[in-house]
Amino acid sequence: MTKIGIRSCGKVLALTLVSLVLVTGCGSEEAPPPPVEAPEPPPPHPWTVFIDGQRETYRVADPARALAQGQHESARLLPDWSETGIRREVERLRAARLEAGAFVDDDLTPEMRFERDAFIARIDHDLFWLVKARWPSRNPLFYIGGLNDSLDPTPYFMLDSAPIEERMAAFIRYLEAIPEAGRQIRGNLRMPMPLTWLELGAQTFNDYARTLRDEAPDKWTDVADPAMQQRFARANEQAIATMTELAEWLAFGRNIADESFALGPALYQEMLWETERVRIGAEELLEAGRSDMERNLAELRNACTEFAPGLDVPNCLAKLSTADDSERRSAEPVTAGRAALDLGELEAIPGESGASFEGASPAARVQQLSDALLRDARFIVSINLQADGWSVDDARAFLMDEAYQSEDAASRQATRATYDPAYLRETLDTLLIQRLREDWTAERGGRAAWPEFHTAFLSFGSAPVPLIRQYMMGDSAPSTVLPEPVAVIAALPADLTIDAEQPRRQLNWAWDCEDGRYVVSSENAETLALELFVDQERRALERVRSASGVRYEGEDILFWTRGEEAMLELGDESTNCRINRYQSNWVDARLRGADFRGFGNEPGWYVELFSSEESVLVLDYGESTLRFQAAGPEDPETGSGSVFRGRFQGLDIVIELTPGPCQDTMADLEYETSVALNVGGRVLRGCGRPLD
């Protein structure tokens, strides 16, 4: 047998290949085991390699975006806006799109598929403005703007993600690139152009020159480098001169200005798809915008009756303008957010009417609804200016008449809609998100699933909403689904007085128990005795003293409630129960003698029809309660069903019940009757069922 000699502690130990000897002590350390080589990591997925490379390519092509991310080391801090540079950028985008599209679904994970589709959508967005809209040669907006637009100097003052010397060096490189950029801009832009565009460009370039002259020198006084300060002074002077010359050149163009700001119907439709993944006609968009505006206006009138009783909307808003700013902004939006599509900031995901009222003062409600109304007006103005032949005067008049804007404010809003065709985006996203939230949460518990929806939605980042809908809803392609029109009841007449009702203590409740039992309790308000409907039997219980909660006892039965929870003992059996609030509404109405109950959502309302006593209509989430004698049933003018009529202090109330399936989308439940409620000429729709 082969032997191996090993010297250890001065002795030779014989080891056979099949023997194991452990050597310890002897004042020396045991020899370390041989290193174990880590397995080679698997190569990255080809898509990961591709998209990582594209991120770097985008950083080089868009230095301002790199600056926004704190990358001051970029050697060139303005894009190449020469004709050759723009052509090269178009070729780069087209090549990247082809390469991304070559990755087929079967080779990608769901996350990679979404990333691919979002990347292609971003390329289509950029190519639309570069090629189809021809923005580099037509619109000064292409070269100016906020944090992600390259000519604005203010990001260098706002961002402090690097030492001041490094930031100053980057700012000097930016200044030194401006003269060449100015020559490229003048070489690209073609006259004539719309007056509003010229004024935008002239004002903005003058503002940039003023910022460089009045603010820039003070930003770098802490840099004690004479050579750098001299270089900055020279570059800043040349940059100021370039900005001023651009402003003067555009101002001179006013002499030959035209009104060619509209994209036109066909190109506007392309813009919606290429930049937003929205494929829907302008008229349908306008219908959705008008519906949302009508709803917000009705809610604004309601809010004004509380904030400024007796005043119409214009005078209500005039009163609001004199209110303390803290009062007008006293309620923060109680909503989640989504990543802003350009800057990664958070924007509010709106509530049912584009505004959030939880905890808001009357003034804050009016302010929020006024803002929502203005967003709707911008939406409508944008579509009509760009695709339906409106003039700036038409847009200004609409904003003044329908959104209650001052002439100056209306002029500013109308002007922006001429040079920014995507002005509708805020309201468009709002409407699309509202519908996506409704559809996604319908199978997940309705409103209770809103927080889960917000988290899921935000995880998709800044992609177009229809694309996010595709992946959240499991669709095969992006789809544009807008909210169904929802009527909002107008404010009740000012001379209508409604006696304030004390909240009625509900005496009848439905309970779900852990052992599967369904229990109904009905308390006698006078004797405090309790009837319990359990196991298809009616059991009588008496209230007894209890150290906590409310305790009822009967023959071989105990029911002990603590808030929304209860313990039920039947003989030797015991189980815990919890109130079912949804079923309790129907149980309570039936046990009080109602013949029919109907309800609707957004705003919440319900009606209970009684044949032997006054019927009751509760509006606006319980804010108004109208009691009336319901006459009927009558046959409807058309179709089947029944009609009930009533009056409340001169206000006509008509309730039309139509048999047939009715879907409650908030709870994903189906009812056997559709309900149309007409109160003073406004219609609310919902569902209901007889209480036999």
Description:
The protein has about 700 residues and is an alpha+beta fold. About 45% of the residues lie in helices and about 20% in strands. It is built from 21 helices and 21 strands. Helix 4 packs antiparallel against helix 11, helix 8 packs antiparallel against helix 10 and helix 15 crosses helix 18. The radius of gyration is 35 Å and the shape is globular. The termini are far apart. The N terminus is likely disordered.
Write the SSE topology:
Elements: E1 3-8, E2 11-16, H1 46-61, H2 63-68, H3 83-101, H4 110-132, H5 135-138, H6 155-158, H7 164-188, H8 195-214, H9 216-219, H10 226-252, H11 265-276, H12 282-307, H13 313-321, H14 325-328, E3 337-339, E4 346-348, H15 362-387, H16 392-402, H17 407-419, H18 425-442, H19 450-458, H20 465-473, E5 508-513, E6 518-523, E7 530-534, E8 537-544, E9 550-554, E10 557-562, E11 565-570, E12 573-579, H21 581-591, E13 596-600, E14 605-609, E15 615-619, E16 624-628, E17 631-634, E18 642-648, E19 651-664, E20 669-679, E21 682-690
Antiparallel strand pairs: 1-2, 3-4, 5-6, 5-12, 6-7, 7-8, 8-9, 9-10, 10-11, 11-12, 13-14, 13-21, 14-15, 15-16, 17-18, 18-19, 19-20, 20-21
Helix pairs in contact: 3-4, 4-11, 7-10, 8-10, 12-15, 15-16, 15-17, 15-18, 16-17, 18-20
